[in-house]
Amino acid sequence: MNATDFDIAICGAGPVGAALALLLASQHSDPSRIAVLGKNFNLAATDHAQGDPRTLALNHGSRRLILNQLRAWPSRAALMRTVHVSQQGRLGRCLIQADELGVPDLGAVVHYDDLLWSLHARLRDSGVTLVPAQAAQARPAPGRMLVQHDAGQSSALLAVQCDGARPAGVRREYGQHALLTTVRAGRPQEGWAYERFTANGPLAALPHPDAPDLYGIVWCNSPERSQMLAELPAADFQSALMQAFGERLGVLEPVSARHMFPLAFHAGPSRLAERLLAVGNAAQTLHPVAGQGLNLGLRDVAQLAQSLAAWQADCRQNPDPFLARYARLRRPDRWLTAAITDTLPRLFATRNPLVQHACGLGLLAMDTLPLARKPFARQLLQGLRA
C-alpha cells in the first residue's frame, strides 16, 4: 500500500462536508487521519448578518437523526409543524401536519451561517485535520487519491467531493432564478410554512429564525421577471408579492435586501472513480421546491458513514466493496427525491388549463385521502433511509 497523508480526504467544508467529517470521526480510532479541506473554519456566530443570506429548511430526519446526534443544532431555529401547499388561481390545497405523522415537528428553518458555525465549532474539537483551502479537487492515482489545494497536494486512501465540483450527467436548466428576501407578516401563523405554486414558479414563505412574525421568501420566476422584481421599489414589490401569495399572513412588509440565485438541476453518479465519491451538491443540485437539497445531502453522508464503519476499523482493506455498496443503497432515495423536485415545479407551471385543474384535484385528493398524502409527506420528512 502507498503511504498516504490521510485515510479520507473530504473536499468541501460546507454543512455536508462538515457533517460527514464528524460522523466519520466518531468511528475512527485516529480522527486526525480524516482531512477536511475548505474555508470559513473561523466563521463567527454572528456573521450571518453580513454573510450568506440563505435560510435553510431542515426536515425532521436531518434535525433529529443527524444534527442533534452530532450536537451541532444551531441555537436559533423556527420550527415547522404545518406545511400549507396551494396553487394560485385554482381550487385545491393540502395540509401536511406533524401530529398526523406522529412527530413533534416537520423540521425547522435555520440560518445557513448559524448551521455552518455550529458544525465548524464541533469540527474544531473533533480531532479532524482542518486544511484551509478555497478549493480542493481530487484525482485518482494508483492505490490512492491525490488532492490539489491551495497549499499544494495531499494524498488519501479515498476522497469525497462535497462541493467545488458540479455533477456531470443529467442536466436541466429551469430558466428560473430564485429571489430571496425576508418579510414581516401582519398575521403570522406560528409553526406554519407555505408552498404556493404560481404560473411563473413556486413561491415559498418559511418561518424565520430571527422573529416569530418574520418569513423567508423564496420566489422562483424567469430571470427577467426576477430581475424586475429585485429592482422594484419596496411598495411595488410588496404589491406584486401580495398578489402572488394572497392574504393568508396578512400584509407582507419587505424588511431585507433581495438576492437572486440561478436554478438548475444537475445529477451524476455517487461514485466518480475507484476511490472517489460525490455527495451533496457534488452529486446532485436540486430545484429548491420543498427544500430537499441539503436534506438529501445529509442523508448521503449518514449512509456513507454507515457504509464505511467496517472499513474504518481497518483501512488496509480494499475500500471498493464498501463504496460500491454505498452507491447502490443511495440510488433509490437520490433519484426519487430528484424526480419529485424536478417534476413539481414544471408540472404546476404549465399553461395548460387541463393540467392545472388536474394539479388542483391532486392537491384536493392528497388533502382528503391520508393514504395518498402520507407517503409523499414521509418522503419529504425523512426520505428513503437504507
Concise description?
This protein is of the alpha+beta class.
Primary descriptors:
alpha+beta; 8-stranded mixed β-sheet; 386 residues; 20 strands; 9-stranded mixed β-sheet
List the helices and strands and how they pair.
Layout: E1 6-11, H1 15-25, E2 34-38, E3 55-59, H2 60-67, E4 78-80, E5 82-87, E6 93-97, E7 107-111, H3 112-124, E8 129-132, E9 137-141, E10 144-149, E11 152-161, E12 170-185, E13 192-197, E14 202-207, E15 214-221, H4 223-231, H5 234-245, E16 252-254, E17 259-267, E18 271-273, E19 276-278, E20 284-285, H6 293-312, H7 320-348, H8 353-368, H9 370-382
In words, what does this structure look like?
This protein is of the alpha+beta class and 386 residues long. 34% of the residues lie in helices and 30% in strands. It has nine helices and 20 strands. The strands form three sheets. Strands 5, 6, 12, 13, 14, 15, 16, 17 and 20 form a nine-stranded mixed sheet that branches. A hairpin with a 2-residue loop joins strand 10 (144-149) and strand 11 (152-161). Helix 1 runs parallel beside helix 6, helix 6 (293-312) runs antiparallel to helix 7 (320-348) and helix 8 (353-368) packs across helix 9 (370-382). It is globular. It starts with 5 loop residues before the first strand and ends with a helix. The model has no long low-confidence stretch (mean pLDDT 90).
Write the element-wise H/E pattern from the N-terminal end onward: EHEEHEEEEHEEEEEEEEHHEEEEEHHHH
How large is the radius of gyration? 21 Å
- Low-pLDDT residue intervals, each spanning 5 or more residues: none
| End-to-end distance | 32 Å
The main pleated sheet reads as: 9 strands, mixed
Overall 3D form: globular
Strand content: 25-35%
Number of distinct helices? 9
Q: Count the E strands.
A: 20
